[in-house]
Every structure is written in C-alpha cells, then in structure tokens.
Amino acid sequence: MRADLNIIYDWVAPNAHVLDLACGDGVLLETLARDKGVTGYGLEIDPDGITRCVARGVSVIEHNLDDGLASFSDQSYDQVIMTQALQALRRPDKMLHEMLRVADEGIITFPNFAYWRHRVHLGLRGYMPVSKSLPHAWYDTPNIHLSTFNDFEHLCRDQGLVIVDRAVGVGNHRGHWTSRLWPNLFGEIAIFRVRRRA
Amino acid sequence: MPDSHSANTDSQLPPDSVGLITPETARFDTPLALACGKTLSAYDLVYETYGTLNAERTNAVLVCHALSGHHHAAGYHHPDDRKPGWWDAYIGPGKPVDTQRFFVISVNNLGGCHGSTGPLSHNPDTGRLWGPDFPVVTVSDWVHSQARLADRLGIERFAAVIGGSLGGMQVMQWSIDYPKRIANAAVIAATPKLSAQNIAFNEVARQAIRSDPDFADGWYAEHGSVPKRGLKLARMVGHITYLSADAMGSKFGRDLRSDDLHFGFGVEFQVESYLRYQGDTFSSSFDANTYLLMTKALDYFDPAAEYSGDLAQALAPAQCPFLVLSFSSDWRFPPSRSRELVDALIHAGKRVCSAIIDSPYGHDAFLLPEPRYQAIFSAFMQRAAQAAELAAPPTAQPEESQP
C-alpha cells in the first residue's frame, strides 16, 4: 500500500465503521476489513476503481464528492477517510465540515504544496511543480485547490477542529526526523487526523 | 436432476451461446395464497435452465424477468431463431453470468402468457379460461412461487438472484422475504417503487387496452377476438419510455420514409414506422390480460409501504451483498431511483456496490452489451462464485476487461 495508506491503517480502530471518500481500487478498505474487522463504504467516481472494488468485495458507491455527503446521516460513522482528494474538490472547506458531521473523526491526506522540491520547482526554476505526488501539468491537473501543511492546520483552527495526530509521507516511506520536525518543508504528503472540539 | 439442456453442437450458433434450449414445466398442486387474498389451487411454472447444477447444489442463479419478459433469457429454441433469449448478452459461457460455473434458472412468472399459469390458462373452478378473472399477482407472489420451484429443484440457497427493471424488484423482494436463501443480489435498472409518472404511463397503457372494443372486458379469447389495437398502443407508449430522447434522436432523427411530406396522417416519420412495427409485433405475441397484470404488479411494488415508507427498515432482514446498477440516460427508472435503494441499504448497514453506467440507450440499456456493465457485473458474479467456493471455469477467462 501507499505510505499514507499504511499510516492510516494504523490510525483506524479495530471494528470501526468507516467511510472512505475517493476509495480508489478499495485496497485500504479491503485490508482494514480483513485484518481489523472494519466495516463501511467507499465512494469513488472512477469506473475502473469501482470495478476493482467490486472484484475485491469492497462496498463501493459511485458518487461525486462535489455533490456533498447529504445522503449520509450525522454521526453515522466512527471515522471518515479521504486520501489524496481534498485538493481536487470544489470546496475543500465544506467537505471537511461535512466529514466531521457524519463522523467523530476525519483522516485526510493531500500533497503538501510547500514540500521543498515543490518550492525549488516554483521558487528557483519558476515552473509549477510536477512531482510524484503532483504528477499533472498545470493545464490538465484535477488538483484545483493545492495547499500546504500549514494551510490545512490553519483551516482546522478556523473550523474549530482539534488535530489529534499528524504525519508526513515522503515518496513511498514515512517521513524521517527532518520531515517530522519541519513537516511543511520536508513532508511530501500531509496526513492529518482531526476531531471536532469536544 | 436438472442437467444442462444445451446442445451446443450446432456450429451455426455462436460459441459463447448456451445453445439450443428446451423449456420445462413444473406442476404445483399445493395451493399458493396470494397477496390479494385469493388462492391459486394449482399452477404451472415454465422455466429454462442453463449450465449444470453441481453436486452440492450451491451454484444456482435465479434470473427474474421484466414486464414483457419470459423464461427464455438465453440461447435459442430453434437453430433458425432470429434472436436469442432476452439476456443472452449476459448469460452464457465466459459471459458475466458464466454458465460454465453457474446453473442458471429463468422462470416465466405467474400471470404470464408464455406457458406459466395465467389468464390464458383454464380456471379449474369454472372450466373457462381465467381471462380477466386471473387474480392480480404481486412481486411477492412471484417470489414465493419461485422459491417453491427452487424447493422442487433441490436448491436451498441461490448463489445469486439477478434481474433488471421489474426483475430487479423481484430481487429486492427475495432479499427481504428469503434472506437465508439468497447469497448475492443484483438489482439492475430498477426502483424501490414506481413514481406517479411511472404509474401514469402504466395507466395510459391499461386504458389503451381496456378501451379497445375487441377487449370485451377481458373475455376476448372466448369472443374469438384479440385487442390488438389496444395492446399495440400500450406497447408504443411503453416503448417510448424504454428509450432515451437521445437514442431515439440518433436512431431516427426527423428522417422521413419518403422524400416528401404528404400532409396526411399516414406513416411519414421513421420513428412512427418503428413504433408501429414494435406495437404490431408485440400485439401479436403478448396477451392483453397479462400486460394489465404485469403493470399492476409494477404499480403495487413498494416494500417500504408497510414500514411507513422507511425502505431501510423494509430491507432490514436482507443479509446478502447487493450490486445496484443504473444507466445514465434511463428516464423510466433513472439513477436517482437506484440511489434511493442504495441509500436505504447504507442506512440499513448492508453491503452494497453501486455504479451508474454511462449509456445513451435509456432503460433498454440493461439488455444491451456494454463493456463497463459487463466488467462490473462479471466482477460481482466472480465474487459470488468465490463465495460459493465454485471452481474456476475450465478455460481461463480474463480477470476483468478494462474498458
């Protein structure tokens, strides 16, 4: 599994009921169900991803996240997970609010735009960054709301959310001490675990 | 023991066909209490089977048919048949419902006009044909009769029950009425209940039939007449709801049959010709009383009704995983209606996969070959086969076709 999925795997409680927004091919939900007795649903919009979920026996609903989560009841899940989709949403702030309406806890991962390689791309070379975590050219990218580790912490503060845990991924690994100390600079993938203020 | 009826030796037939099929009839003498309060003292069910029932009897799949459907879902009755069964694109060796792994049963529902007991059968109490006296049957009644056929064939539990449109409603009912007897449910292009508009279209169809003088209050068979005009109109209006505006537009546009306008009321536009042809063909092969019954079964279907409209509560007994598919251009039972079912399943905590297949063909899309539909249906049926611990088919099929 991807580095961010491995970290999330550790953060999901045994037998939790989860909603995985943009669940892709369903590998996280399948692994969580098999190893930890986790139940729940994935939402996905990519046809191939949906078929792969079906083949894995993962419950998947074809759903565009920009349509919101109105059909999901308040507090109906233990955790809502959204990996690498925040930056592609029309209103990431509203989605964050919705996630913490349907669940007590949200787990969010996204590419950190302030990662040092991205800074080099933009600051020194003068081009929009293209990297492993941001593989698209500026004109065809689905990522319309790029943000940084710091930006997201700011948004959480504005929404009155508590950051329970945070981590970074670099390439296919968890970040080492530099990225833990200076996540906004050395973290390629930002990983947050947030709750509503009690 | 029912065995494969395929005689796939005829080289004229496609290699992925189940081949030549002979329908069978099961006679039931145990009375069947119907939802309307009446009882059928005895009845016949006509059905077809494809593939072979395994020794453990764990590989059976039940196919439920739609409004104008019947038991002939796959293969051919005669080598010179122009068309195969109605779901041949999805049932056969190597197809999503792979007859190399599954034993498929397809039943003509009660009230039908293709051999199962219905308005064209004799009423044992009167000696007359049932005609308009045939009791109004419901989706639930059909499901109970299908369960009895399963008993007869020694099938305790279906690996899957599958169907489109009205067939999908029977699948929902199966999951509610016989949760232990259905391991997987595929509900395709269906709805948990008809909308006012759906019922309205059905009522136009019924009025077309009932106002035909040849209908004779439903006793047309005794009068030696056939209400062909009414049935034709009913089919024409129904057919419009099966196609999307785009599909009709791209198929016919405003094309004329001849170069000039005639300023009259004959057939001028190709779409008029097509609808009349569809109506004519249907009216000479389908029974008017059956059409009335089938549309009523559609109208009445509403499993949530007895739970104050709470569909999630109605689905509470269900235990199996569901596959819920809809089609983007279907305006008869649009994707939003399937989503109602999906939301209810989620609220009830059931396992469900759902997809909206992009197709220009409207409601009819559930019958037509489409790569994404085939891929996802195949993936679901392969899960069903794995869950029933069925051996892989002898010739390895590709894992999943990537469109």
Describe the structure in your own words.
Helix content of chain A is 34%, strand content 25%. Chain A has 198 residues and is an alpha/beta fold. In chain A, strand 2 (39-44), helix 3 and strand 3 (60-62) form a beta-alpha-beta unit. Chain B is α/β, with parallel strands linked by helices and 403 residues long. Chain B has two domains: 6-192 and 304-390, Rossmann fold (3-Layer(aba) Sandwich); 199-295, Rna Polymerase Sigma Factor, Chain: A, CATH 1.10.1740.110. In chain B, 32% of the residues lie in helices and 13% in strands. Chain B has helices at 139-152, 166-177, 196-210, 220-223, 228-242, 245-252, 270-283, 288-300, 311-314, 335-347, 371-387, and strands at residues 24-28, 32-33, 39-40, 43-50, 60-64, 91-92, 97-98, 103-107, 160-164, 185-188, 322-327, 352-357. Chain B has an eight-stranded mixed sheet with strand order 1-4-8-5-9-10-11-12, sandwiched between helices. Chain B has a two-stranded antiparallel ribbon with strand order 2-3. Chain B starts with 23 loop residues before the first strand and ends in a 16-residue tail after the last helix. Classes of the chains: A alpha/beta (198), B alpha/beta (403). Chains A and B meet through helix 3 and strand 3 of A and helix 10, strand 12 and helix 11 of B.
